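Notebook, bench 3.
Goal today: get a predicted structure for F-actin-capping protein subunit alpha from Neodothiora populina so we can plan the truncation constructs. The sequence was checked against the plasmid map this morning, with no discrepancies at the termini. Length recorded as 271 residues. Pasting the sequence as submitted so the record is complete.
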Amino acid sequence: MSKTDIVSSFVEAAPPGELSNVIADIKALTIDEPSLTDSLAPAFKKYNEEQFSTVKLPGSSQPVIVSEFNSLGDGRYFDSASQSSFVFDHATQKASDVQSHVAESQHSDLVKSLIKSFEKHAEEHYPASAIGVYPIENDSAIALVLVANKYSPNNFWNGRWRSLYVYDPSSNSLTGSIKVDVHYYEDGNVRLLTTKPIKASSSSATASDVIRQVATVEKKYQEDLNRAFTQLNEGAFKGLRRQLPVTRQKVEWEKISGYRLGQDIGGGRSR
């Protein structure tokens, strides 16, 4: 594996909201090889499209999504809701050169209805979210993309929810996946990465029924995650060690030499 491949893998695996930190570390580690950073354009593109990176267009307050589903090629992407296209710089994550763009589709009315219903769903359930609805596969299907980010670097954690659904109007079927990525890094490094394949169907071809099915599968997955976390906390984690010492206080590790090992930490008798 070449150095470029290794460094590219760091970029592609960057946790939510931490791409700039990863890039800064790469530059510091490769200070003697500045050209190495210049070779990362493909990695930046892959990261932004796979992570559904968002950007606010000049003069707009609403974020739009960057993905393979709304790519026009040569670094240009389109947004169905604003009926515009834009150039996206994958290295700086900035948008420019906004132009009018109407995606021609036999499902244009359905796309507009889906945008309206999907936006309402996102606003009700996800803070700091963005959605996209795009005709794909030679206009035979519609991609519905949702991304919700929540960053809390002061508390040493960041998280991202990504939903992708491909809706087939001819069969009313939905296929896709839900991905959750959470990174916690206070005095350690813990990361949760999950992928849930989705296969469902809508009761009718109306936008409201399609989004109702989306809401159903997302609610169920959130409930499944909550149950899994509860079981993990009450089961496996407790089996590893007690949550607090017998003093019921967190251990101050820099003062560990002053603790009485048996009584203060282990709970047994000291000698």
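The mean pLDDT is 90. DSSP finds eight helices and eleven strands in the chain.
Flagging this for group meeting.
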